[in-house]
Automatic annotation (TrEMBL), chain A:
Keywords: Cell membrane, Membrane, Transmembrane, Transmembrane helix, Transport. It comes from the Archaea. Belongs to the binding-protein-dependent transport system permease family. FecCD subfamily. It comes from Halovivax asiaticus JCM 14624. Required for corrinoid utilization. Probably part of the ABC transporter complex BtuCDF involved in cobalamin (vitamin B12) import. Probably involved in the translocation of the substrate across the membrane. InterPro entries: ABC_BtuC-like, ABC_transptr_permease_BtuC. Gene3D superfamilies: ABC transporter involved in vitamin B12 uptake, BtuC. This is Cobalamin import system permease protein BtuC. The keyword Iron-sulfur does not apply.
TrEMBL record, chain B:
It is found in: Cell membrane. One of its GO terms (biological process) is monoatomic ion transport. GO terms for molecular function: ABC-type vitamin B12 transporter activity; ATP binding; ATP hydrolysis activity. It catalyses: an R-cob(III)alamin(out) + ATP + H2O = an R-cob(III)alamin(in) + ADP + phosphate + H(+). This is Cobalamin import ATP-binding protein BtuD. SMART domains: AAA. Residues 49-287 form the ABC transporter domain. CDD domains: ABC_Iron-Siderophores_B12_Hemin.
Amino acid sequence: MAGSQATGADVLTRRERWLGWVGGSLFTLCLGSLAVVLVGGLLQASFGSYSMTLAQTWRAVFNPDVIFNWYVWEAFLFGAELPEMGHDSLIVWHMRLPRVFVGILVGMNLAVSGAIFQAVTRNELASPFILGVSSGAGLMILLTLVVLPSVTIVVPFLVGTFVFNTSQLLPVLAALGGAAAFLVVYAIAWKNGTSPVRLVLAGVIVSTVFGSLQTAMFFFAEDIGIVQSAISWTTGSLTGTDWKEVRMILPWTVLSMGLALVSSRQLNVLLLGESTASSLGMNVEKVRFALSGVAVLAAAASIAAAGIVGFVGLIVPHMVRNIVGSDYRKLVIGCLFVGPALMVAADVGARLALSPVQIPVGIVTGLIGGPYFLYLMRTQDRMGEI
Amino acid sequence: MPDDRPPRTDGGESALERETDRPDDDSDRSGDDLTDEPASASKRGASEFAGENLVIGYPSTDEPVIGDESVAVAPGEVTALVGPNGSGKSTLLKGLATQLALDDGSVLIDGEEVHELDTKALARKLGLLSQENVSPTSISVEELVEHGRYPHRGFFDALTDEDRRAVDRAISLAGVEPLRERPVGSLSGGQKQLVWIAMVLAQETDVLLLDEPTTFLDLHHQLEVMEIVQTLRDESDITVVLVLHDIDQAARYADYMVALEDGSIYARGPPEEVVTEALLADVFEIDARVEETARGPRIEPLRPRHDDEPEGQCGDPGADR
């Protein structure tokens, strides 16, 4: 310890060392998460109805003809014609890996969305779905599947017409339903401004009502297939996801993650409480709405690709906070890595545990999330406020 | 520390403007020899800060807590708001800090209406330390103080050298240099309060409002806080307004006092004019003995007064309620 005669340089090096230590834990966390994603991805690529050896998979995954081929990526990311490629590479890159990529994006979105909502409500138990997003999306999913099962929508456009089937529109409708529910929650909570408690209460009200309506919809479902499809949407599933889903949510993910990263200082100031934030010159109401909007955008994107995956958005910010602390500049970065790790690992279980039967990934995240919270409850005296 | 406060014989030139429309003004009340003159700058460059015809209430109640009061604060000096629980002193401070919407009236800083200022521009002129503050436990003292620079930074701006110097100045003025890298969660209540004060100091405002900064602190940290306030008065142009629960402390450290009772200003002026046995009986409902000392009036509380008791129990001629 330098003690009282610490010079300026001393203070600086001590600060650097301290920063290095914290940065180190964040770095280790990110590296560990990357390893989990990599192992999970390789497992997903190796196993399935067409079985390959690990060596075969490895060669197919790291096939330079695919990775460094612009036309392949054009096909994946912009939906162009897929060029010729080997059988193994086709299976791995076209059938199995898209699911891993969707898992990565969904995990990021949910984790960061949860982290933002935990700052906005100043409550560690907030999740991406706390402001009614999941209930709005769930109701919309049920409405689409049950009430309008096969309505075809024809939209006349400048040249020709767009023809949509409602089942094709389901992801978009679900995301829109979630966003609409969020706006309803905000409108209910608004009374000369909002407060975290009123927002959460309004979220509970809207979730309860929409949840009831959603359950009522199950009653009118005509066959078990619709019910199963509805359940897989409302518990969250990556089954059958494709590059199409990647293309759909990638832009929204990049946008919302970028916004979350640049807003991390605003999130830190929000954590100091409403009155401090506003006496520091923050327009708390505006910032809160904008940040909630970013979080809802991320959550809605994840719903559009995978349905309502629970627990990821709740526990990932927790795990990261326990390791790197509550500085959002680090927390958001940590969430960007740990969210995908959890999601990909859970999806390995969802796809391969009961093979050939696949279960919705939301069931696995719930099975992981519950015990993790039990563990937290037993080890931490104080939970709740950040 | 020698008593280096400004002379307190300037009652006729007081910086505290008296409200004009109190119906029950009676002429023998302390502080009545103040004139109606507006604040006169006692320090060059210090900010003028005033609230005019303030009506302040909470959204949940119909009746305003503060009903049509005006306060003009002495620029560059320390003004203490005192009063019993529920007298509206914190409400008045929150109204002045624009934390509560005004039902009527206006708050002016250097002649500008504060509600017309952009929130960040206002936060560069006017700082507020609330009574209770929360922060994540893992954040370091330095990081918390850096948040004080929020109003000086744009959305994408990193900390500039000027910001870092302001943070260093605030940390050394608040005397929390040894705590700099400690997580806030590991500090005692008193240390935390000093750190929060460092944060508002880093804001580098012209006017600083402190809401009960010494309540719940041990004596050592109470004196630390008041020493910072004293330093601000002696060595800077910052205008300080603080709510103090302890009237003795207010009498000792403040240049001017404003005593509130039931949402209206009962008396205002330098401590020796405000702190009288009559005021303690009327506003605080206690019998007390007030002793004039070189450090201002000293109060020896004797007993609480009850409405049904006969008057003037302690033989105090001023207790004429």
